[in-house]
Amino acid sequence: MAMNRLEAFRRLLRLLDREPVIANLGKNCYDLFVAGHRPENLYTWGAMGSVSSVGLGLALARPDLRVVVLDGDGSLLMNLGSLATIASLRPPNLVHIVCDTGTYETTGGQATHTAGAADLAAIGRGAGLSHVESAIDLDQFERAARRGLAEPGPWLIVAKMEGTSTTAKVPRRPIYDKYRFMEAIESV
Amino acid sequence: MDWSTVMADTLKANGYDMVAYVPDEVADRLLELLREKDAIAMVSATREEEAVAVLCGAYLGGKRGALVMQGSGLGNSINAICGLAIGIQIPFLIIISERGRLGELNPVQTPMGRAAPRILEALGIQSFRIDKVEDVAATVEGATKLAFASLLPVALILSTALSGGKTWR
């Protein structure tokens, strides 16, 4: 039985202090917002697939911060090359978490290829990442997240999750959110 | 001096901290010179959209970035240019080596060569063509000011007259 994403995010947030969290568009944003809005959360609204690359850029720019990315399986499947780029540049402060629901949730729950044969943890290892964890329940997820936040990475954590029916919408004000996020991490 | 040296020096002097790129013959020397500069992080991306997203992340971390790509990569870059860079107002410099324009030998490079100027225009991205090495420094400096004042990407087009274009191997 896959874990509940909202509960997983609540557990993750309890482990965090001021670490920036960048959430993939759609349900990851909704659940992060409900689990705990904080100024260090960045909710994205477009450019599906690019959130791991945004996290990479931030991790390279700010080695003083541990950067957490909440990706989706459908999104990562759009940007698999980013795993090779991350593995090649090896930013130790990047924690890339994939909430693998096996579905394109925001577009109506259609199956992704991870519902079939694709294995994102194996793809990550094949891309050259050496810190890859898989989690299928909340305790495994919390353990992996603790390691990712404490030990040098880059980390890829592939967590099998259930889609959630969270409908609470994040306020759609991405430009304001950009400044709020940058101020929270002291980039401006 | 050759255009690559002037451009690398001017990028450094204008405070660029990161260059994300997809390797390209025309820009090869430029990228090599940038790699030798201290304090410029070089990110070799697998495709152009990824490079755009990396630069957006770096901007969120307070860094100034430039994207280096062939004109043929423009198509690959657009989703992130719209959904991230223009959408939330993130500036960076886009340095494009022309493909599908004067002197092109590859038939299938020509459709994007024809479309590229109007694609940039349709996106509202101001672009400036550089034909002569004497214009490189002033154009890079002016485009940098414009990008960071407008909070939008600004494109520089390296014409085949400037670069000599691609060698047919």
Topology:
The complex is a heterodimer of chains A (188) and B (169).
Chain A: E1 3-4, H1 5-15, E2 21-23, H2 27-36, E3 41-43, H3 51-61, E4 67-72, H4 73-78, H5 81-89, E5 94-100, E6 103-104, E7 110-111, H6 120-127, E8 131-135, H7 138-150, E9 155-162, H8 174-184
Parallel strand pairs in A: 1-9, 2-3, 2-4, 4-5, 5-9, 8-9
Antiparallel strand pairs in A: 6-7
Helix pairs in contact in A: 1-2, 1-7, 5-6
Chain B: H1 3-13, E1 18-21, H2 28-35, E2 41-44, H3 48-60, E3 65-70, H4 74-86, E4 93-97, H5 110-123, E5 127-130, H6 136-150, E6 154-158, H7 160-163
Parallel strand pairs in B: 1-2, 1-3, 3-4, 4-6, 5-6
How would you characterize this protein structure?
The complex is a heterodimer of chains A (188) and B (169). Helices cover 42% and strands 20% of the residues of chain A. By secondary structure, chain A is an alpha/beta fold. In chain A, strands 1, 2, 3, 4, 5, 8 and 9 form a 7-stranded parallel β-sheet that branches. A two-stranded antiparallel sheet of chain A has the order 6-7. In chain A, helix 2 (27-36) links the parallel strand 2 and strand 3. In chain A, helix 1 packs across helix 2. In chain B, strands 2-1-3-4-6-5 form a 6-stranded parallel β-sheet, with helices on both faces. In chain B, helix 4 (74-86) links the parallel strand 3 (65-70) and strand 4 (93-97). In chain B, helix 1 (3-13) crosses helix 2, helix 1 runs parallel beside helix 6 and helix 3 packs parallel to helix 4 (74-86). Chain B is globular and about 40 Å long. The chains are: A alpha/beta (188), B alpha/beta (169). Chain A binds chain B through residues 22, 42, 44-51, 53-62, 65, 79, 81-82, 84-85, 88-89, 174-175, 177-178, 181-182, 185, 187-188, and chain B through 17-18, 20, 41, 43-47, 49-63, 65, 79-80, 82-84, 87-90.
